[in-house]
Structure formats: structure tokens, C-alpha cells
Amino acid sequence: MLDASPIRNDWTREQAEAIYNLPFMDLLFQAQTVHRQHFDPNQVQKSKLLSIKTGGCAEDCAYCSQSARNGAQLSASKLIEVERVISEARKAKEGGATRYCMGAAWRSPKDRDMAALEAMVKGVKDLGMETCMTLGMLDEEQVFRLRDSGLDYYNHNIDTSERYYSEIITTRTFADRIDTLNKVREAGIKVCAGGIVGMGEQQMDRIDMMLALATLEEHPDSVPVNMLIPIADTPLADVAKLDPIEFVRTVALARILMPKSHVRLSAGRTDMSDEMQAMCFFAGANSIFVGETLLTADNPEEDKDSALFARLGISPMAVGCDGSK
Ligand code: SAM
Ligand code: DTB
Ligand code: SF4
């Protein structure tokens, strides 16, 4: 049991493995203890997603509905209008979301899209919301342009361990992901980076994925932990379901390795019971995506989440307030 939770970037694989494999009650107790040192345990941050460009993606991510290489029948759209993004963000704000995350099904943005992306960031920021984008790999100029337009966060997931990466994606490498993450951080944009569990990976892949995030030069500010949403006609459509306890262990490991990061209980909540989500919050998750659609897949409806918060005595975290003590 740790007395305090110092911010460390030198965790070893043995340490991470030992934490992950603690008796479950010890693991949850330790995660909750660390959580309380940095956050109000009864506050959860709400983010809202919008797909600003859907489908037709050139990458071959085996989990994704939006890859043109997968069989999923999702038609490709163009980048949506700036005004539409701002009006959707306004609605999300009225619904209590404090962070607006705009996602595009791209390997990387084209320079011709940059002016519209900058206008989206400025428009959403003017509403008083935090802005986040997830657009694929970025070059240095694109990073600077997004930063200068006021982008607060960039989401770029490592998705799995370095070892398992090529089983899931072949059109880019794990190192490509780390490279974009480093560019984003060096430019001063806050990093949101996590991954997916339940893709047929081994326990060591879940541990190594969290270890890779926790040994970056700085911990990501947000760490989304997604449970795979199996999508018909993708290579992972029929993958065996992960034991939910393994998912909770992964959340707890993220909390203990990265004590000050927001750990987001991301995709897959539609199939989770209130009890399972409560266990994830107890294990240190303190952020969710709200609204009935993620990018293309289902998410619990707002009234269901309001009822869950009421059942658990959880209140939404205010914007600009990370709950830190
Ligand atoms: N194209 C950009 C990229 O891949 O970086 C941004 C959008 S992409 C859809 C954002 C993230 O959503 C992925 O990195 C992955 O972690 C997550 N994701 C996508 N499909 C998912 C699924 N079926 N289940 C769980 N998470 C998923
Ligand atoms: C993240 O880690 N999860 C979100 C967000 N970052 C962009 C996306 C989840 C996508 C789930 C599948 C879909 O909606 O298509
Ligand atoms: Fe494209 Fe992103 Fe989906 Fe991969 S995860 S196929 S990069 S939209």
C-alpha cells in the first residue's frame, strides 16, 4: 500500500503487473485512496462527442466502423459545416457538458481543412466550453495552427500495447502514435490518450498499454479507457467478451499509475450495468462521454446517466475545475 501518490514516470513493468494482479479488494481500495488524494470522488466530468467527418477512413483499424477497409456499411460524409458544429456544441453545453470533442475519420487532416477546423475551435471556445479534437496524425504546422486557434486537448489513442498493435492496425505504427502525442505535448496542447480493451488482447497487453502511457514524459491529462464496442462486419465483430473485472482492473491501474489524470470511462457503457459503472468510478474513473451517440455507436441516453448520477450521489464537474485538491 502506498502512503501517498507521487507522480512517477518511471514505473516498471513488474510494478504495474503487481498492482494489476493485487487481490481485487486491495486493488480497488488502493485506487480509491489515490483518487481521493487528487480529486473529489463524487464528481465526474462530462464530455460530449461529435463526429465532424464520418466514414471512408483510409486506415485499417480492426475495431472501427469508419475504416473504408472494413466491411461495415457506413457511408462516408464530408467535413460538416462550422455553424452546425457550433449549434450542436451549444446544445451539449445546455445539457451540462463542459468539454466538446470533435472527431474526424481521417488518417490525418488535409491542409485544405485547417481553416474550418480552426473556426470550429474558436466558435466552441467562445461558448465557454473546453475544446478537444481527434483528427489522426498531425504534422508540426497543423499542431501549431490548432494550438493558436485555442485548442485545449488533442485525443490520440495508443489503443493497445506495442506488442499487439500490428494485430489491430497495419497502416500506421505504435511509434507514429507516440510521435504525434509528443508533438502535441511539446506545443502545449493537453494530451488525451488511452486505448481499447476487449480486443482479444492478453492481460499483459492491457498492463503494457497503461505502462506506455504512464511512462510518457508527462502523463496524459485524460486517459480514455474504451471497452470494445463490437461492430458487425469488422475483423473484431465476434471477439470473445472480456471479463468485466479485467476492465475494472485496467481502470484501477490507470488511476494508480497516473494519479492526477482524468480517467474516462469511454466507449462501451451502453452494455454496462449501473453496478459495473459504479465500480469503475470507485476504481478511479472520473469522466464520461454523454449523449446517445459517441461517434457512430450508441451511448446511454442523458436521462439514464442523470439517474445513474442521482443513484450514486455524483455531481458533474464544472468547466475549468479539475477537482484537484
Ligand atoms: N481517426 C482518428 C484516430 O483514429 O485517431 C480519430 C477518431 S477514432 C474513431 C478515436 C478512437 O475511438 C480510436 O482511437 C479508438 O480508441 C476509439 N474507438 C473507435 N472505434 C471503437 C470501438 N468500436 N470500440 C471502442 N473504441 C473505439
Ligand atoms: C475515445 O477514446 N473514445 C471516443 C473518443 N476517444 C473519440 C470514441 C469512441 C468511439 C466509439 C465507436 C464509435 O462511436 O464509432
Ligand atoms: Fe480511421 Fe480513426 Fe477509425 Fe482508425 S480509428 S479507421 S484512424 S477513424
Question: What are the salient characteristics of this protein?
Answer:
single chain, 325 residues, alpha/beta, 14% strand, globular, disordered C terminus, binds S-adenosylmethionine, binds 6-(5-methyl-2-OXO-imidazolidin-4-yl)-hexanoic acid, binds iron/sulfur cluster
Question: Would you mind describing this structure in some detail?
Answer:
The chain has helices at 13-20, 24-38, 82-94, 114-126, 140-148, 162-168, 174-186, 203-214, 244-257, 274-282, 302-312, and strands spanning 43-53, 99-104, 130-134, 153-155, 190-192, 195-197, 222-227, 262-265, 287-290, 315-316. Helix 1 (13-20) packs across helix 8, helix 3 (82-94) packs parallel to helix 4 and helix 8 (203-214) packs parallel to helix 9. The protein is globular, with a radius of gyration of 18 Å. Strands 1, 2, 3, 4, 5, 6, 7, 8, 9 and 10 form a ten-stranded parallel beta sheet that branches. The protein has 325 residues and is of the alpha/beta class. It starts with 12 loop residues before the first helix and ends in a 9-residue tail after the last strand. Mean pLDDT is 94; it is low at 321-325. The structure holds S-adenosylmethionine (SAM), 6-(5-methyl-2-OXO-imidazolidin-4-yl)-hexanoic acid and iron/sulfur cluster (SF4).
